[in-house]
Structures are given as C-alpha cells and as structure tokens.
C-alpha cells in the first residue's frame, strides 16, 4: 500500500515536548518539538485560537489543507509535508519537518557583504523554481515568496514554508486554458480596504515580561528576517523598527504590480517575487523599497530596477522577471520551463538537483538530535498569560531555562 495515501496522524499535544522556539510569526509560534513515538524532532506550528490576529484560525486551517494536499502525493523534495495536525478548544497545531539551517535571510546576513555569490544564487533559485513549478502544477499560487520563507533543510537543500497566503486557482471556464482564476477572489482588489490591512508585524502582544523575553532571548531575532536590510545594516541589534510588513496581498516589497493595480493573482506574481528575491540575494536590498508603503508601491508600479556594473545573465534574468506587465513576464506563457531555459541556468542538470550532496551551506548537526527534555506546550502558553510580576516572573525564568533560544 502506498504510504503517502495514509492520512497524516492526529498529533497528541500531551505527548509533545518543545525544546526550542524556532520562530514567531504574526499568527503562530513555531517550536522544535519531539514526541515519544518518533525518532526525530520536528517543527510544530501552534496557533492560539484566542489570537488577537484576525482570521488566525481560518489561515491556520487553510495552511493545513494546503500541506495536506502537498502530502497526498509523493512529497516534493523542496516542499514540506504534513507530519500530523491537531485541534482542540485552545489551539490549532501542525507538524512539518524541521529545517535546522534557518532561512535564506539569516543565511545572507552571515555572508561577507551580506550577498550571495552568483553560483549560490543559481543553486537556491533552481530549487525554488522547482518548488514553485510543483505548486503551480497543483493549481496553487504561493503569493508569499521572500527569503524568510525559504528554509534550509539538514541536507542543505531548501524548503518553502508558510502557505497561509497561498491560493488555489481554478482554470477559467472560458478563454485560454492556461489562465486561472481565484475562486475566492474573482473580483479584483482595487486597493486594500483599511479593515483588511492585515499587517503582519511581529507585535509582542501581552505583558511586559514577554516583551523583555522576546527581545532578550531572541524570539524577535528568529523573526529578524523581516527587518529591512538597510535598517539592519545601520543597527544590527535593533529589531524593533522597520520590520517587513505583510499584508493580505503579501510582503510589500515583494508584491507584484498587477496585485497593487488589482488586476489579479495569477501564477506570474510568484515569478515577479522570484525576481525581487534574486535581486535581494545579489545586492542585499530589494529593488523597489520606498520610505513608506505608498512610495514602495509607486516604485513597484513605475520604477525600473537599478543594476550595478555590467549587464550579465543574472541581471538579464532579473530584468525579465521584473517585467511590470505580467503577460510579458518570463514564466507567463510556459511557466517554469521558460525560466529554466534562461541563459543563467545554462548547463544546470535540473534532474540531478536533489543529488547535489554538497549544497552551498550545510547546517551543523546539533539540536536536531535532541529528543529529551523540553516543555509542555500548553504550559508554555499558560505561563505567558500570567500577569507580569515586578519581582519575579515565573514564565520568564522558566522559559529561559527550558528553551535554548540560540540562533540557528
Ligand atoms: N520547519 C521549520 N523548521 C525550522 N524553522 C521553522 C520551520 N517553520 C517555521 N520556522 C521558523 O518560524 C518562523 C515563523 O514561521 P512561519 O513563517 O511559518 O510563521 P507565520 O506565523 O506564518 O509567519 P508569517 O508572519 O510569515 O505568516 C520562520 O520564519 C522560521 O524562522
């Protein structure tokens, strides 16, 4: 019997022990977790149902359903699969494989000059293209491509994460069968109405003790990937300002012009974001960042990306992905094949990507082996709810002892 056809098991939250906080998103907390019945630890995303974040439950269920779909067939090497999920009156949580290498933004900050070499960019882009190709083939438009959402597995290969903004498109009834529409968003969004501006800042939500916990112990650090490159260069310790905001249409600096114009959300938005990502990996900054959202959007709509130095295959690829008119963008007509055929990838053996044994960066093996100790997840959240005490804060102290919040 095909093991992939077996539905992912229900997780028993009572059996799970968290040994580390891997990150904190707008809607949930991601823990490194182990469970008696499994050999390897895994990543567990927990969304509190009482979350102040609007639509947190709906987004969580959507993400689980996408992961479930991705897990129904043989798992894709550069996409996560659902290990299990669970829901009770307090939480929705789900488990995916742990990626100990951190995300591409954290990794970029570790490089000299905070940029990747063209060879490294080529490797990561190739894997990301394969992941997007698979998603598009399933009718899924990702809509949230950015370095923070590209994680590095133990093997050094990548995994795309965070599917809560992804949408399933259906082939349009009339016209060209290559065109898809979003059943939920048939009507174009002209401008994000104010009340739908689900800005995804990392906001410490509860008492001051948590605030201190977040800053001191690096929870925000794990989320530092959202900090704009410029502000981080000025003050690498300042994680409080200029975080990348993520509205319901995606992260501002990565949003495609047609989304701002309200012309639709087709697959080409992912190819646009790939161009922005590629530019950021090459130059250490995104191409259209303005002082505020309005200016960023204006630049996305009107400005051409600036390139430094002589044009080359990589700048040519970026230029073709950052084509404002989606119908003229690389990838629009024939999807990923058009991009794979670009000169920048000449000679690349796409079929052998997974066989690459020495990807550019290999995470060290340490906490991925931890299968003992840890904290009960329900307890963790209960302690966060305790009122702050000026003299003694049990949640803070205990959490400090129980979680090793070292950076990746
Ligand atoms: N499988 C994993 N392995 C290691 N770290 C992970 C894993 N999944 C998530 N993380 C970490 O947790 C962080 C938050 O995860 P994720 O982006 O899925 O949460 P979110 O609540 O959806 O955030 P967002 O605000 O982007 O929507 C990631 O940036 C990453 O640092």
UniProtKB/TrEMBL annotation:
Q: Which SUPFAM superfamilies match?
A: Protein kinase-like (PK-like)
Q: What class of enzyme is it?
A: transferase
The entry marks the following residues as binding ATP, namely 45
Report the sequence similarity comment from the record: Belongs to the protein kinase superfamily. AGC Ser/Thr protein kinase family.
User: Could you tell me which PROSITE patterns the record lists for this protein?
Assistant: PROTEIN_KINASE_ATP (PS00107), PROTEIN_KINASE_DOM (PS50011), PROTEIN_KINASE_ST (PS00108)
Q: Quickly give the catalysed reaction.
A: L-threonyl-[protein] + ATP = O-phospho-L-threonyl-[protein] + ADP + H(+); L-seryl-[protein] + ATP = O-phospho-L-seryl-[protein] + ADP + H(+)
Could you say which EC number(s) this protein's record lists? Answer: 2.7.11.1
Q: What is this protein called?
A: non-specific serine/threonine protein kinase
Residue intervals of the Protein kinase domain: 16-345
Which SMART domains does the entry mention? S_TKc (SM00220)
Query: Which organism's genome codes for this protein?
Result: Rehmannia glutinosa
Q: Where is this region: Disordered?
A: 224-245
Which Pfam families does the UniProt record give? Pkinase
Q: Which UniProt keywords apply?
A: ATP-binding, Kinase, Nucleotide-binding, Serine/threonine-protein kinase, Transferase
Q: Where is the composition biased (Polar residues)?
A: 231-245
């Amino acid at each position: 019997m095909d093991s992939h056809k077996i539905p992912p098991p229900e997780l028993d939250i009572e059996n799970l022990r968290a040994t580390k906080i891997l990150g904190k998103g707008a809607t949930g907390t991601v823990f490194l977790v182990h469970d008696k019945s499994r050999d390897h630890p895994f990543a567990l995303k927990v969304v509190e149902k009482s979350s102040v974040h609007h639509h947190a439950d709906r987004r969580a269920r959507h993400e689980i359903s996408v992961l479930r779909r991705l897990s129904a067939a043989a798992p894709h090497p550069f996409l996560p699969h659902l290990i299990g999920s669970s829901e009770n009156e307090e939480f929705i949580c789900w488990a995916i494989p742990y990626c100990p290498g951190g995300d591409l933004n954290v990794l970029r900050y570790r490089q000299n000059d905070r940029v990747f070499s063209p060879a490294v960019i080529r490797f990561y882009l190739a894997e990301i293209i394969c992941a997007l190709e698979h998603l598009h083939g399933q009718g899924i438009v990702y809509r949230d491509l950015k370095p923070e959402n590209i994680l590095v597995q133990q093997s050094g290969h990548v995994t795309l994460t965070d599917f809560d903004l992804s949408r399933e498109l259906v082939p349009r009834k009339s016209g060209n069968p290559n065109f898809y529409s979003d059943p939920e968003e048939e009507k174009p969004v002209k401008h994000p109405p104010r009340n739908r501006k689900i800005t995804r800042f990392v906001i410490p939500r509860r008492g001051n003790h948590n605030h201190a916990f977040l800053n001191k112990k690096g929870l925000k650090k794990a989320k530092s990937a959202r900090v704009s490159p410029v502000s981080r260069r000025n003050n690498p310790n300042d994680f409080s300002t200029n975080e990348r905001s993520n509205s319901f249409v995606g992260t501002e600096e990565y949003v495609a012009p047609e989304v701002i114009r309200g012309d639709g959300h087709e697959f080409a938005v992912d190819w646009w974001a790939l161009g922005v990502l590629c530019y950021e990996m090459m130059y250490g900054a995104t191409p259209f960042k303005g002082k505020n959202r309005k200016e960023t959007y204006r630049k996305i709509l009107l400005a051409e990306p600036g390139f430094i130095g002589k044009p080359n295959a990589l700048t040519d690829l970026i230029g073709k992905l950052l084509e404002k008119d989606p119908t003229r963008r690389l990838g629009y007509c024939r999807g990923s094949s058009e991009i794979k055929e670009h000169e920048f990838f000449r000679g690349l053996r796409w079929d052998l990507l997974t066989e690459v044994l020495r990807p550019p960066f290999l995470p060290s093996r340490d906490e991925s082996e931890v299968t003992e100790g840890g904290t009960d997840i329900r307890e963790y959240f209960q302690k966060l709810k305790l009122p702050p005490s000026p003299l003694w804060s049990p949640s803070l102290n205990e959490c400090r002892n129980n979680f090793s919040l070292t950076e990746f």
